[in-house]
């Protein structure tokens, strides 16, 4: 008898936690969808910012200093700042992001011979004070000297 009650209580607890998790996800998506529209881009659904944020077209990587990579994009007057994404793999899995108002960022203390992958995007603050990001640029890579 005890085992059945324990199993039932455990199942109910998991059900309640799952329900709360679903509610949290829906709330987050509701807040997220205020600043972005879900549109079809190149045949697949993608969130697109409601305010116009241009995608950076140039991304230059300078690896002349040992253990350092300097990332630079062109200055754009239509954005307030940039977000750089740096990863050690081409899928950008577990990438580090850096938000800056400058169109350049320096990544230091990198291992010699390591390949890094970089992307950049612009951001603006909307009328409610929330940061809204544009689309990521194309991915660039370089080998650390």
Descriptive report:
This protein has 145 residues and is α+β, with helices and mostly antiparallel strands. It has two domains: 45 residues; 93 residues, Sandwich (Immunoglobulin-like), CATH 2.60.40. 21% of the residues lie in helices and 38% in strands. It contains one helix and ten strands, in the order H-E-E-E-E-E-E-E-E-E-E. Strands 5, 6, 8, 9 and 10 form a five-stranded antiparallel beta sheet that branches. Strands 3-4-7 form a three-stranded antiparallel beta sheet, with no helix packed on it. It has a two-stranded antiparallel sheet with strand order 1-2. A hairpin with a 2-residue loop joins strand 1 and strand 2. The chain is extended and about 65 Å long. The termini are far apart. The mean pLDDT is 85.
Q: What's the structural blueprint in terms of helices and strands?
A:
Elements: H1 2-32, E1 36-41, E2 44-49, E3 59-62, E4 69-73, E5 81-87, E6 96-100, E7 104-107, E8 115-125, E9 131-133, E10 140-143
Antiparallel strand pairs: 1-2, 3-4, 4-7, 5-6, 5-8, 8-9, 8-10
Number of H- or I-type helical stretches: 1
Average of per-residue pLDDT values: 85
| Major beta sheet summary | 5 strands, antiparallel
Portion of residues in beta strands equals 35-45%
CATH fold description of the largest domain: Immunoglobulin-like
What oligomeric state best describes the polypeptide chains here?
A: single chain
Q: In one word, what is the shape?
A: extended
Write down the domain tally: 2
Stretches where pLDDT falls below 50 for ≥5 residues?
none
Could you give me the name of the CATH homologous superfamily of the largest domain? Immunoglobulins
